[in-house]
Amino acid sequence: MGRTPNVDDELMHARLAEVFRANGYAGASLSDLSRATGLQRASLYHRFPDGKPAMAAAVLTSMESHFGEIFELLASEPDTAEGVAEMARRMALVYRDGRMACVLDTMTLIGAPPEIRAHAARLARAWLQAMAGAAVRAGAAEQDAERRARAALVRIEGALVVARVLDDPSVFEQVLGELPDLLAR
Amino acid sequence: MGRTPNVDDELMHARLAEVFRANGYAGASLSDLSRATGLQRASLYHRFPDGKPAMAAAVLTSMESHFGEIFELLASEPDTAEGVAEMARRMALVYRDGRMACVLDTMTLIGAPPEIRAHAARLARAWLQAMAGAAVRAGAAEQDAERRARAALVRIEGALVVARVLDDPSVFEQVLGELPDLLAR
DNA sequence: GTCTATATTTGGATAGAC
DNA sequence: GTCTATCCAAATATAGAC
């Protein structure tokens, strides 16, 4: 039985996440992670005896939990279009209005440990399932709902890439605005 | 006046590109690049005295030239929908049917030199311009054409990310199929 | 639990023989 | 033009004091 995650852990994971998301798994050095958290490298190893892979895993687990809350919100909102709009608002925060990359993108390049990539794949599938569920509640047939959910994820991830490349976050905000129509129409 | 690029150069750039695209800029080590090209690290430095940044720049220049040919094709095809379909077929080759990442994504993370990121941004803008031009020739108003081109790039980049994360290249093929409708309708 | 100090390996880069 | 050998810096990881 591990100990209960506390506020400090969450803050730490958020700071680690920033580094992994911006630099990718391979690009995130222990020095970067040390600087971002304010802890010396040895202290990071005290908290994560298995080193960088364990830090990346903690980031994904934390992300998974944060996203899980958003998916629950989406599932419990009776007005599906409003639920999707709320998800979009939460995603705007997560991705800092398009200025911060997604772990699914930057932590899945060659160089990341296979367990990390598998973890990211699980997160992506949970996200697809949550969005497809919303589409079904909005009246879509199962297959169509899955199609729409996939389209939504494609646009979100693509918008984050394009926003970064062009240094123009508006691309992302544009896509967020399309989500209610795409998923709940 | 530099020397004329020959077949060997193109092959070498293609092999370097594979490493940068799969691993990202930071994740592509000289050892990786050496293995991929069959040249020792010192030999790579003979060809690229400015080291890894120069190799990445060569990859982008090579990519730019390859894409430029595709854009010319797109611009010269009288049947715009057919031109877009041909672009899609070329992109399927470039991205190995969704199994290989895009430089615009993986070479623009924090850790890549600013010149590399600027180079990637130029390539992205040229691509957008080429697609918007096609949309205009298909009858779209200028603003709408730009919107459609941006949507196309978002979907292509997003599909590559999602295909990688889910290990399901079909996501990319699906998006390629949508392009003629999106751009030339 | 955090630190300084250090070990070890890898990565980027150069020198010089062939 | 490519190689082996080497250098130096950076990255991961550990030891042990406090």
From TrEMBL, chains A, B:
Domain HTH tetR-type: 17-58
Classification via Pfam families: TetR_C_13_2, TetR_N
Matches recorded under InterPro entries: Homeodomain-like_sf, HTH_TetR, Tet_transcr_reg_TetR-rel_C_sf, YxaF_TetR_C
SUPFAM superfamilies, per the entry: Homeodomain-like, Tetracyclin repressor-like, C-terminal domain
Annotated Transcriptional regulator LmrA/YxaF-like C-terminal domain residues: 96-175
GO molecular function: DNA binding
Source organism, top-level taxon: Bacteria
Gene3D superfamilies (alphabetical): Tetracycline Repressor, domain 2 (1.10.357.10)
Keyword terms, alphabetized: DNA-binding, Transcription, Transcription regulation
Name of the molecule in the record: Helix-turn-helix transcriptional regulator
